[in-house]
Design brief:
Elements lengths: L9 E4 L4 E4 L14 H21 L6 H8 L3 H4 L1 H24 L1 H16 L8 H15 L1 H13 L5 H30 L1 H22 L13 H12 L2 H29 L7 H6 L4 H9 L1 H27 L5 H29 L4 H65 L1
Antiparallel strand pairs: 1-2
Helix pairs in contact: 1-5, 1-8, 1-9, 4-5, 4-6, 4-7, 4-16, 5-6, 5-7, 5-9, 7-8, 7-16, 8-9, 8-13, 8-15, 11-15, 11-16, 13-15, 14-15, 14-16
Length: 428
């Protein structure tokens, strides 16, 4: 693709082998809603989100079957989820550095390629230990996608459309999480959990191929340095930013709730008083569609309530859902899951888009730090939520979730007060 100015010096974007101007293109040249490039980009990243979440959480709805197959407790089986999210959390920052050097599209493509390859090995794991190791490798491979995707959007999409664009990517996450769990639930009921995760691997292969064919070549990417001192300096700069640190903590806490709830819910619904079959339990994850809607409308929510107002609403919605889920009525449990899902995805979309807007340099590292905190929260939620369920039942898992939501609200209140102080200082 041609650079914006023929007189400008160029560098080669390793993701597309196309010359890219070393001088940023005008904001008008970025992708905007309604244009064909925007639609292709949105659908490509939507599919990437589907593949990422379908693979990352492919074992979550199957934990009761995995427990039975390997003869282990819920807290042990939950490591098949925690290992994947933990691997992603550990490798997302190094992968983001690679994307700064070699290009967003290259790193995202490689990440999906390795992850789907490992996904085809997962069904043949002979032991729980092997399964956990494969899942950790799969999570590490997927690490290149989340931070690179948000950095790609921040560079290629007009600023006013950024929240909506990231919301669509997050919506793809919700569809991937939903479809992965629903498909595995019904397939596993007939043919077992191994066939179920194999089907998810095949779905991810199709998504990865379509993603690579559809994603437009980047036009605003500028290659950075892989020098450790540069990376460390960028990370230090981001961690010294109080707003970014608050957003990282909010993402981690929201994901602690979500990881705990959806790791344990299968055990609760297959036990008394519900005693639901595996296929029906998998279908419960259709409530992820609510997350698709709440994530994709996050931009309008921020426009009406502001970022902090949207976070208050997301936290309140999540807490209400947690409390409703304590009932022994299946209808109320389902309503609780709907609210938890809507609140989580809205809060995640708001926080992650705020990170991309706040960071003016090293966006991939800023997004990577958010993703790292986010998936550390997922691993913590999966592990702590399962332990709480083992010791205190569903009420124990809900207690963990409520404490995490209180953390979100506390951080947001602190941020609101800090913003007011800054406004008063500026006024004087």
């Amino acid at each position: 693709m041609s650079p914006a100015s023929t007189g400008a010096s160029t560098i080669v974007d390793a993701a597309s082998s196309a010359p890219v101007s070393s001088t940023p293109l005008s904001a008008d040249s970025r992708l905007a809603p309604g244009g064909p490039g925007y639609r292709r980009m949105s659908f490509a990243l939507f599919l990437a989100g589907v593949a990422t979440f379908a693979l990352l959480y492919s074992t979550q709805a199957l934990l009761p079957l995995i427990s039975t197959d390997f003869g282990v407790a819920a807290s042990q089986a939950s490591w098949t989820v925690a290992a994947a999210t933990g691997g992603l959390a550990l490798f997302v920052l190094p992968m983001s550095a690679l994307s700064e050097r070699y290009g967003r599209r290259t790193v995202m493509t490689a990440s999906l390629g390795v992850a789907v390859g490992v996904g085809m090995l997962v069904p043949f794991a002979p032991s729980l230990g092997t399964l956990v190791v494969l899942r950790a490798v799969q999570g590490a491979a997927l690490a290149g996608l989340p931070a690179s995707a948000t950095a790609y959007l921040a560079e290629e999409v007009r600023p006013k459309a950024l929240v909506t664009a990231i919301g669509l990517f997050v919506a793809g996450n919700s569809v991937g999480g939903m479809s992965g769990r629903v498909i595995t639930g019904w397939v596993a009921q007939e043919w077992g959990w191994r066939v179920a995760v194999g089907v998810i691997g095949a779905l991810a292969v199709a998504c990865a191929i379509a993603f690579r064919l559809l994603l437009p070549a980047p036009r605003h990417f500028k290659a950075g340095s892989l020098a450790p001192r540069v990376l460390i300096g960028t990370v230090r700069e981001h961690l010294a930013n109080p707003l970014l640190c608050r957003l990282y903590a909010i993402g981690a806490l929201f994901m602690t709730v979500f990881g705990g709830v959806y790791t344990v819910i299968g055990y609760r619904l297959t036990e008394a008083p519900f005693s639901l079959p595996q296929g029906i339990v998998g279908s419960i994850f259709l409530v992820y569609l609510v997350g698709t809607v709440s994530a994709s409308t996050a931009g309008r929510l921020v426009g009406r309530l502001g970022r902090r107002g949207a976070l208050y609403l997301a936290g309140g919605t999540t807490a209400t859902g947690l409390l409703l889920s304590l009932a022994d009525s299946l209808a109320l449990v389902l309503l609780g899951l709907v609210l938890i899902t809507a609140g989580f995805f809205a809060g995640h979309a708001v926080a992650s888009s705020a990170v991309s807007k706040t960071a003016t340099t090293g966006r991939a590292q800023a997004s990577a730090l958010y993703q790292s905190a986010y998936y550390i929260g997922s691993s913590a939620g999966s592990t702590v939520g399962a332990l709480a369920f083992h010791s205190g039942g569903w009420a124990g898992t809900v207690c963990v979730g409520v404490l995490a939501v209180l953390g979100v609200v506390t951080i947001t209140v602190f941020g609101t007060r800090a913003a007011r102080r800054e406004t008063l200082v500026a006024a004087h």
